[in-house]
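Retro notes, item 3 of 5
We never archived the inputs for the iron/sulfur cluster complex last cycle. Fixing that now. Sequence and ligand:
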Amino acid sequence: MHNSDNLQFLLNDPNLSADLKHIAQKVLDKQRITFDEGVLLYEQGELGYLGTLANYIREERHGDKTYFNRNFHIEPTNLCVYDCKFCSYSRLLKQKAEGWEYTMDEMFNMVTKYDGEPVTEVHIVGGVLPQYDVPFYQELFARIRAHRPELHIKALTPVEYHYIFKKAKIDYATGMRLMQEAGLDSIPGGGAEIFDPEIRDQISKDKCTADQWLAIHEEWHKLGGRSNATMLYGHIEAYKHRVDHMERLRQLQDKTGGFQTFIPLKFRNKDNQMSHVPEVSVIEDLRNYAVARIYLDNFDHIKAYWAMISRTTAQLSLNFGVDDIDGTLDDTTKIYSMAGAEEQHPGMSTKQVVELIKHVGRQPIERDTLYNVVTDYTNFVIGDEPKPQYYKLPVIN
Ligand code: SF4
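Structure as it came back at the time:
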């Protein structure tokens, strides 16, 4: 059956509304949908309808290819000068007994621990504290770069960059250039939360604004750098706020083309100041992936974190627009497990990740950070591995 047959079936469905048929036709014709159509998809699109559209786009772009990578995390600290209401990870300065603050040497030693391991990326992100400033990160990046030149350094979000550049009294363009010169290779997608100012103010007051978040990514893209973007969904936002968030990303992507991947992050309610807010269902997770795939027509990849939504839901998500499930994990991050994610001690070997993808009829592709193919496991049989290998976890900040 051709990939477009299911869409044709929708277009011939007498029970489907004219508005939803119009959107399906646009997807078939590779036309961009509008803001109002994005909201309509959230409000009226049923799971099967959204999945059909999103899977069509996914397969047009990537076929069955499903990406993962191998990396490890360094989380400099779980203390933070900010106080985001949804954050289960940060411990306020007054609760210092529960916190950690790694030194430069401790972080560098975490990198050397992976010497000889087949990792391609180090992902550095954590809380915001004054001692982690521009000179600190310049030195850290430079030491990692000198020690292991091929290791991709993906580090810090605009939340940290805005804070450290302001402290150093330098503008974003200068700051990002200094980071690049020190060895920074790309920026992860965190800190975006929800861009709408009213919602943002309620859940993560004081840290960088939407405009500042976007401006830092723009400066980075101007330097030729690539980055990702997240969206924290399923808390107090409305559908229009999710579409607004994606619209702002779509506009910047039109301008720079520097984003690689969009990563929806599900709000988890364990042990944070928003524990009274119920979590959304798995069905809503899948609908959200699908709408993102349909709306963000200029983003190459949509990623789901299996450790956050469970392995089974991650498998399902591959039919709802997702083409990247991140990878196995080696417990090098606590951000999501502390927020009540499905996997409290996440870890899968390469073999398990490959099988998880193959079991739902997709092609497992190990990638590097920039989506160059490291290994195509489609016809590759892996023996039993003596120990788990290392992958990254999602981050909120
Ligand atoms: S989400 Fe990030 S910026 Fe906000 S409190 Fe947590 S660690 Fe700090």
